[in-house]
Amino acid sequence: MPLDAKIPGGPLAQKWDRHRFELKLVNPANKRKFEIIVVGTGLAGGSASATLAELGYDVKTFCIQDSPRRAHSIAAQGGINAAKNYPNDGDSIWRLFYDTVKGGDFRSREANVYRLAQLSNDIIDHCVAQGIPFARDYGGLLANRSFGGAQVSRTFYARGQTGQQLLLGAYSALSRQIGAGKVKMFERREMLDLVVINGQARGIIVRNLVTGQIERHDSHAVVLCTGGYGNVFFLSTNAMASNVTAAYRAYKRGAYFANPCFTQIHPTCIPVHGAYQSKLTLMSESLRNDGRVWVPKNPGDKRSPQQIPESDRDYFLEEKYPSFGNLVPRDVASRNAKEQCDMGKGVGATGLAVYLDFENAINRDTKSVIEKKYGNLFQMYEKITGEDPYQTPMRIYPAVHYTMGGLWVDYNLMSSIDGLFVMGEANFSDHGANRLGASALMQGLADGYFIVPYTIGGYLAGAQFPEVNTDHSAFKDAEHDAQSRLNKLLSINGKRTVDDFHKELGLIMWEYCGMARNNQGLEKAQKLVRQLRAEFWENVKVPGSAADFNQSVERVGRVADFLEFGELMIIDALARQESCGGHFNEDFQTEGHEAKRDDENFCYAAAWGFSGDDGQPQLHKEHLVFENVELTQRSYK
Ligand SMILES: Cc1cc2nc3c(=O)[nH]c(=O)nc-3n(C[C@H](O)[C@H](O)[C@H](O)COP(=O)(O)OP(=O)(O)OC[C@H]3O[C@@H](n4cnc5c(N)ncnc54)[C@H](O)[C@@H]3O)c2cc1C
């Protein structure tokens, strides 16, 4: 069934303005009659809750952590894009729009991306007004730096902790509304199910992670801002609590899941160093502004980097992509690093690493300049590896970082369930098959501060809301389902830990549905995931009790969902018989080993619908129409 994205008519640049005018408004005095549930307090959820409450709605906000400001967004390092063109280097809304569509390998929706580029400038103004301490140049103007996939400097930053500073801004706005009584904050709650009544999202079921109690919460609309699902790979740069549960439960209640196989593998992470590791650390893309990526020219060269003369070094990104050099987009940089390592040119003990070298930059700009720009990142690298990156090049390797796939949403950010809105990394919206650096923060804040406050009003003003409360049978049934599932998981009392299953799933996904895929491997992975899932339900062990704070209980539910969702990723990867962005099927590549798209047959967003535990997911296509951008083979040469 083709999907209707409800893209407004008219010229691209006027769609959003016109749409805002045409959307119905809720009378200010009526706003307090509506209750909205927001799940998640990262940049998307924090900004949405604060803004909706500021508008006058009654908001109930939920998060897993003990405080809203511990959401994963706090980890974001490098920066946030905006088309301000402060450096006067040729940027514009159109260029940001174009770079983003091209960066996403022409698998995103033009109208959404254009709106994102327009709103990017409002975000910076808003955040400056909040007091976010963006870096400034000598004269006091906001400073910019470059990120991958762009030839202009449009990234605003606060050293290597941009996410933290932006989140403090959203959190302050949220706290103001908590103080004013307009937001009721529920920390340490995990959403286990969505309650749908008469086709409308009317509430959620959560588990209180401290007491273990299952709770029901009703509302007129639900906004999911629950982040990405990169932890399906076990090892990723995401926070430990990042998961797919809320989105996956919504999928099982009727929301379509779009492009689940589009995963971003970030090229500059600290390489895996042992079997007991549970987390990977990102080295921000901003480092590629000054760091040069290289490997020894000759496979098997085990000399230390200082002993390898210039003539024996291969600056493979600069060589192959002279226009963009080290700042090619992430999918391109990651694939090239892998290719070098596959040829035996990888460095370090495992051979699964390439160098990121600052020697030239330090000689050119001095150590203190480099320290000012990246000091905290260098310190982090040294703490983890024991090596001083001012003296010796960093060793880096690609790792799972971000998920472009997510719940399908229309132009209003509403899912295929009425009244269920999805924002930030949890939706599939703007990044196509590959996200450009510094654009996730931009998207989350555009969604939360500037889009949903309008579009949710349009929905609330236009829909009918039968009287519903938490005694409704749909709430009882959903609570019963959640409790029974948990009881079943706890009663298994098998021999393998939750993490043990999670690790094995991660290895399967990385090997067969990771940086490179092929049909044979994907088919094998599907079988392996099914076998593992079957064993999980017979042999998982959850120590302790569900009646108090117990992280094994939290994780077992999340891993159970990952074990189902992993298969959906594989099904999606198998269905897309082309390569694009982060989805690189080895059977579809150009002579230069770049992703080879098939626009004739696959120029669509694949939105999967649940059709029962024993049924096959149903594919719904949103055909992508490009009226303003010409579809071309992506080139960064
Ligand atoms: C190390 C790192 C660095 C990054 N740096 C940058 C950068 O420099 N620039 C950039 O643009 N992007 C960056 N990104 C990406 C960016 O940080 C994320 O995409 C973005 O912060 C996601 O925000 P969010 O609001 O969608 O979700 P999150 O910040 O992940 O928040 C999710 C929220 O949902 C809650 N939640 C989740 N599941 C449930 C549930 N079942 N029940 C209740 N609550 C739930 C969590 O408690 C949390 O509050 C980086 C990512 C990483 C990993």
What does this structure look like?
By secondary structure, this protein is α/β, with parallel strands linked by helices. The chain has helices at 15-22, 28-31, 43-55, 93-103, 110-130, 162-179, 245-252, 316-320, 330-342, 359-365, 367-385, 440-462, 473-491, 498-513, 519-539, 551-575, 599-602, and strands at residues 35-39, 58-62, 80-81, 155-156, 183-186, 189-197, 200-208, 214-218, 221-224, 257-258, 263-269, 292-296, 313-314, 354-357, 394-403, 406-407, 420-422, 496-497, 540-541, 604-609, 618-623. It has a five-stranded parallel β-sheet with strand order 5-2-1-9-17. Strand 1, helix 3 (43-55) and strand 2 (58-62) form a beta-alpha-beta unit. Helix 5 crosses helix 12 (440-462) and helix 14 packs parallel to helix 16. The mean pLDDT is 96. Residues 39-45, 62-65, 71-73, 75-80, 162-163, 189-191, 225-228, 237-238, 242-243, 245-246, 282, 401-402, 424-426, 438-441, 444 line the site of flavin-adenine dinucleotide (FAD).
